[in-house]
Every structure is written in structure tokens, then in C-alpha cells.
Design goal:
InterPro entries: MBL_Glyoxalase_II (IPR051453), Metallo-B-lactamas (IPR001279), RibonucZ/Hydroxyglut_hydro (IPR036866). Pfam families: Lactamase_B. It comes from Nocardiopsis changdeensis. The chain is an alpha/beta fold. The protein has a domain of 214 residues: 4-Layer Sandwich (Metallo-beta-lactamase, Chain A), CATH 3.60.15.10. The protein is 47% helix and 22% strand. The chain has eight helices and 15 strands. Strands 1-2-3-4-5-6-7 form a seven-stranded mixed sheet. A six-stranded mixed sheet has the order 8-9-10-11-14-15. Strands 12-13 form a two-stranded antiparallel sheet. A hairpin with a 4-residue loop joins strand 10 and strand 11. The chain is globular.
Amino acid sequence: MFWKRKSKKQDGPEATDSAAEAAVDDTAEDAEEAGETEGAAGAAQAAEAEKSDKDEKTEKDRKAEEEDTEAEADEAGDADADDDSEDADSEDTDSRDDAEAEADRDTDEDSDDDSEDGDDEAGTSDDVFADDTEEAGVTGPDSEGITRVRAAVTFEFDDEKFEYIGNTWIVRADDDGVIVIDPGPDAEAVLEAVGEREVYLVACTNAYAPHIESALKIVEETEAPVALHPREMRLWRRQHGAEHRPDYEVEGGGSMTIGDLQIDVVALPGTSPGTVGYSISQLGVVFSGDTLRKGEPGMVGNTYIDYTTQLASIGESLLTLPPDTRILPDRGPATTVVAESKNFDSWV
């Protein structure tokens, strides 16, 4: 607020001057008041503008805070989504890992199964006597010193004739001698395969003709003894007469040492009461005669003489040998214990 001192009253021009001065003073005062009023109004407007600015700023701040809050919420949502995605990815990965592990196990099992089948097939296919061809001739010797002589057989049984290729086996006993098992019809082929070696023994699995036919011819040339089960003597006499008896009677459970080999006699009744097999564990082989051939029990002609007894002989005496034992029969290719064990249930 401006203030001024009042002047003394004057007459005439002075008075006019004073009046003018007063007018001026009043005008100035009015101007001052107006200025004060305008200043107050300006201050009010400034205050209002400042308030408006503050309100606007507050509103902006509020909006900014809301936006920040929304942004934080979005970030949190994105983080949760990322976590969910990571969890889903982890679950998918775990599922894939489990599936791959299961597939690997299945593959390993299949691989193991294939490996076992492969081992069975390899064990037979590596055998030089595993061929399915049936032609007369000589095969071997193999790595164990075993030779096979095949010859054409004509076998008469129950008034019928059966023709096939039969096996005679020559086994190296030591450097000087051999064992002949089941001498068939071709004595010359057998003696040629024996060569200069001595025949220590002629061993017969039973006395059907294909198993003993050339026995006496070989004995005449080599003076070798003959081994046969005593219950086969009747059939022997039909072929060779009563005057030429076998030198040794063999029965299941017995054993012989010939050269460097120990030969165990295996009782195999069924095709005939006195049928036997000859097992040589040192060589991992068993000579089964007509009891067991590859894939089937052997028949006499086209007949099973005593099928139940024959199956018992196969199951209890042959298939109880070590699984990798080779089975060398009177006809057909070689097989193994493990291969025929898989077939046994289908025969019962």
C-alpha cells in the first residue's frame, strides 16, 4: 500500500496546481490501486495457474504411476508367462527325454533279442555240417577233427523202402587213430576218409541197417572192435548173422576213453529200445543217431516207434547238455542244443 502526505490549501493557480497535483496524486493513487488490483489479480491468476499446473502435474503423475503399475503388471504377467512357458518347455523336454529313454530301452531290448537270435544262427551257420543240401560225399574235417561221409541209403522197414542220404561220422581220437560212428552203406568212402589212420572203434547208435550196414567190412579191413547196446542184438543178427557179435556192449551212463577222448554213452530209447548217443564234451558234440534231427524228432521210415519215450530221451538226455553243444544226427544237417530247445514245446 502506498501512502503520501497531504499538502496545505492554496488559492488561485496554486490551488489549481494543487488540484492538478491532487488529481495527479489521485490518478496515481488510482493507478497504484489499479496496479495493486491488477497485481492481486495477476497473483491470483498465477496462483490458479500454479495450482492448475500442480493439478495437471498430479494428474500426469497419477497417469504415469498407473502406466508404471500396468507396465509392472505386464512385466509380471510376461514373467509368469515365461515361467509357464519354461515349465511347459521343461515338461516337453522331460517327456521327450522319457520317450527317447523308452525308445532306447526298446531298441536295446530289440537289439538284445536280435543278438540272441543272431548268436543261435551264427552258432549253426559257422558249422561246416550245417548245410541243408543232401548229396553224397565227404565234408571236413572241421576244426575239431570231425569228418562227415554221406552216402545214399535204401532202408527197408515195414515192407516199405525209404531212400535218403545218410551220415557216417569219423572222429579224430589222436594223431594216429579215429572213431567211426554209424557206418552206413559205403564202406569204401569211409575207409578212404580214414586213410592211413587206425580205426580204434566202430560205435553204433542202434542196429537199424543205415547205422551198421558197413560195420563188418570196416572191421575186416581194420580189425576194429564194434560197440552196441545189448538190446539191439536182434536187429544186428538180421543184418550180420549170429556169428559176428559186437565186441563191446554199451549202455547209458557208461563211458570210454579212446585215444585222447572220453566218450560218454547217453541212453536214448524211443526209436529202438537200445538206442544210444555218444557225447564228447571235449569237442562240444553229441552224436544223436536217429533220435533227434534238425527241427524234429527222428522217424524210423515214416513212423514214430515210441514217441513218448523218444521225447523223454530228447528232453532229459540231449537238451540238458550245454546249450552250445552241436548235435550231429544220422541224417540231415547239424544243429545245436539251444536251437532245438526252442522247438521242444511244439513237439509235446
